[in-house]
Structures are given as C-alpha cells and as structure tokens.
Amino acid sequence: MPQCACSAGASTGLSPIAIADDMTLRTGDIIAADDGFEIAAISSGQKRSALFSPLSKAKAQALGLSRLSSR
Fold this sequence. Notes:
Layout: E1 30-33, E2 36-44, E3 48-54, H1 57-62
Antiparallel strand pairs: 1-2, 2-3
C-alpha cells in the first residue's frame, strides 16, 4: 500500500506522516510542536479531523513537561 508507513520507498526508518493523520492520536494527547506543547482534540464526524491548541506553560509544568523544553 503506498500510504503504509513501512513503504519500501523510505531510505531509512519510517516514512513521515502528518501528526493530524496519525490514527493513534486521541483527544487529550499532548504533542511536541515547534513552538511548544499542544493538546489534541479529535472530531469523528463524517471525516476525522484533528485540532491542536497550545498547552499552557502552567499545565506543561504541572505535568513535568517544562523540563523537556528549552522554551
């Protein structure tokens, strides 16, 4: 399958996919973005979609994530 992450077209490792296309992503999951941490909200209507909101610095600190970021 061409959309398979294990595609033979990849030179090394896994083929990259957009985080919004990751079918394992669930509402409430926290991701590391270029400008800090974000929390996912997944809708499951006729077409699945993912929205991301910035995670506050206070919440990131409470979760112990602030030590993972230099920002």
